[in-house]
Specification:
By secondary structure, this protein is an all-alpha fold. The protein is built from eleven helices and two strands. The chain folds into two domains: 173 residues, no CATH class; 73 residues, no CATH class.
Length: 283
């Protein structure tokens, strides 16, 4: 596919029409008036509006490009490519083979376009999210005095707001959020692994023993025995009148799975008191 424009053109160096009065480019205007909070915030509002207008025009054009594209020319090229197969022979097998190739190729072209459209839609959503993030920072910062939010910081944030409305900005936002989620997931996994490996050999064996006690093959695994064991835990596990033995066993299994090393012995004692413990070997 041909290259597409990666974002709207910058408006930070353009003039802004305020009725009949023209405002100079952003950097010069901030340099001249940015030390006054009222004037600084006026410039911010004006530039946000200009950036928003340019962005929305760009998105509309991008959406038009993704729907008009060169899909039909793709299919026409495929048709010409198999034309020799469809002509020059009267054999039906050859005709069917050529038609099949055309249909398969057309389907591939449609799928590429669908993929492009979906990707563009996802990137526009990312751009919108990124823009909202930066805009919130600007709006909150504009509440501060010029000493805390000086002109150079204003210009930097406005440039960041423009960048957020580009395809590269959308891609960077997706990468950033994906990386953050990856770190969160890795921390969760690392925490779970540490909890597992914090158990010594004997403790892991005890977990297996307690789990085996909940198996259906355990003759003492009755609703009464399970409920008795659950009531002795801290906090206790209480089953309602409609609970089955399987349901109580699942609840006890969750408690065993999540138990920390110092919680295993009390669970074992509750199982022993309820005559629920199975004849399993603890290493």
């Amino acid at each position: 596919m041909n290259a597409i424009r990666g974002g709207p053109g910058s408006v930070l160096d353009e003039k802004f029409a305020d009725d009949s009065e023209y405002v100079n480019d952003t950097a010069r205007e901030l340099d001249e008036k940015g030390d006054n909070k009222v004037e600084r915030n006026k410039i911010i509002r004006q530039r946000l509006m200009m950036i928003d207008m340019a962005y929305h025009q760009y998105v509309r054009k991008l959406q038009q490009e993704q729907t008009t594209g060169n899909l039909f020319s793709d299919i026409a090229d495929l048709a010409l490519g198999v034309a020799g197969t469809l002509t020059g022979s009267s054999q039906e097998m050859t005709r069917y083979a050529g038609a099949s190739a055309l249909l398969a190729g057309s389907s591939a072209a449609v799928n590429r376009r669908v993929l492009f459209e979906q990707t563009t839609t996802a990137l526009v959503s990312a751009m919108d999210a990124f823009r909202s993030q930066v805009r919130l920072r600007i709006v909150e910062s504009a509440k501060q005095e010029t000493e805390q939010y000086p002109p150079q910081e204003v210009y930097y944030d406005l440039a960041a707001y423009e960048f957020a409305g580009t395809l590269l900005g959308g891609i960077s936002y997706v990468q950033s959020t994906a990386e953050k989620q990856k770190k969160i997931n890795e921390a969760d996994i690392d925490s779970s692994v540490r909890e597992i490996y914090a158990l010594n050999v004997s403790q892991r064996a005890l977990k297996r023993c307690l789990t085996a006690s909940l198996a259906g093959s355990n003759a003492n695994r009755t609703l009464v025995g399970l409920s008795t064991a659950g009531a002795k835990l801290a906090p206790p596990i209480t089953a309602d009148a409609s609970a089955t033995a399987d349901q109580v066993a699942q609840t006890l299994q969750s408690r065993i799975r999540d138990a920390k090393p110092d919680e295993l012995v009390p669970i074992k004692q509750a199982f022993v008191d309820a005559q629920l413990i199975s004849d399993c070997k603890e290493e």
